[in-house]
Amino acid sequence: MTDITILTCQKYFKPAVISAYEQNILDERKLIIKALEDKGLNVHCTTWDDPDYDFSQTRAIVFRTIWDYFERYEEFSVWLEIAKTKTQLINSYDLIQWNIDKHYLVDLEKKGVRIVPTAYVDKGSYRSIEEVCLERDWQDVVIKPAIAGGAFHTHKVMEFERADNEELFENLVTERDMLVQPFIATIATKGEASLMVFNGRFTHAILKKAKKGDYRVQDDWGGSVHPYEPTQEEITFAEKCFSACSSMPAYGRADILWDTDGTLLLGELEIIEPELWIRNYPESSARFAEGIISAMK
């Protein structure tokens, strides 16, 4: 029996052409596998949708670069329901089900976590961007799906562009639940800090910056990654976000933004398949492995 199966998607399993981006993924996977093996575990890697893999023959599965799940959400949901009956999921099924939909931000806010202010426009209860902005006294906003990743179907809408984007927004709401959030201007200047937390403790951080003229910090859109030393306040804030979960995730990251007055805001809490930048801080792989072992116990 395999101790740990690392999950990826077809695109990143055995890429035929290895760009710098794919090499980063492979390097990180190698570090994670070695850290787990150093703890005495045997490790395998496969895709989450591999029809020939017997998930009952692994003690646990660890979700990593399954970065197509939100584009194949119905298929993934069916697979997830089956997988949970065959083996242990890390992070847990309950955490995944909660974190997969950005309505989780409501729960964190109720527990005292400062989040980016958010209005929810759910499928079947359409409200226009104009209505939401007038109600909340917002000017420039960002619209995004409740289930997504990598800035998928994410759009910045300036105040003067609302009318031009109403049809787009209505079409999106026809298919999925959507979020409307005020545009946090500092993301285009200061960027967004990602703080990694393994087994409840901060390990390392990076700063993501958008390319000039953009606001999306993801490297898919030309964003860049920089070393970052967070303040103690930021570390405490990130760890508080994880403590607010129903159970402690084995691994994850908190994406932090700053309001114009410096107030810390949680953009997202990523605990399903987050990019973790372990390759930038290889020593953190041991803490990652410790979190997995703790979860297995």
Task: Jot down its keywords.
single chain; 297 residues; alpha+beta; Rossmann fold; D-amino Acid Aminotransferase, Chain A, domain 1; Dna Ligase, domain 1; 3 domains; 13 strands
Task: Describe the 3D structure.
32% of the residues lie in helices and 24% in strands. The protein is of the alpha+beta class and 297 residues long. It folds into three domains: 2-99, 3-Layer(aba) Sandwich (Rossmann fold); 104-114 and 186-281, D-amino Acid Aminotransferase, Chain A, domain 1 (2-Layer Sandwich); 119-183, Dna Ligase, domain 1. The strands form three sheets. A five-stranded antiparallel beta sheet has the order 11-10-9-12-13. α2 packs across α9 (284-296). It is globular, with a radius of gyration of 19 Å.
List the helices and strands and how they pair.
Elements lengths: L1 E7 L1 H4 L6 H19 L4 E5 L10 E6 L9 H11 L4 E3 L2 H7 L4 H7 L8 E3 L7 H8 L4 E5 L9 E3 L4 H14 L2 E5 L9 E7 L2 E9 L14 E4 L4 H12 L9 E6 L5 E7 L13 H13 L1
Parallel strand pairs: 1-2, 1-3, 3-4
Antiparallel strand pairs: 5-8, 6-7, 6-8, 9-10, 9-12, 10-11, 12-13
Helix pairs in contact: 2-9
| Radius of gyration (Å) | 19 Å
Instruction: Catalogue the unreliable spans.
Output: none
Largest sheet: 5 strands, antiparallel
- The CATH topology of the largest domain comes to D-amino Acid Aminotransferase, Chain A, domain 1
Bulk shape: globular
**N to C succession of SSEs:** EHHEEHEHHEHEEHEEEEHEEH
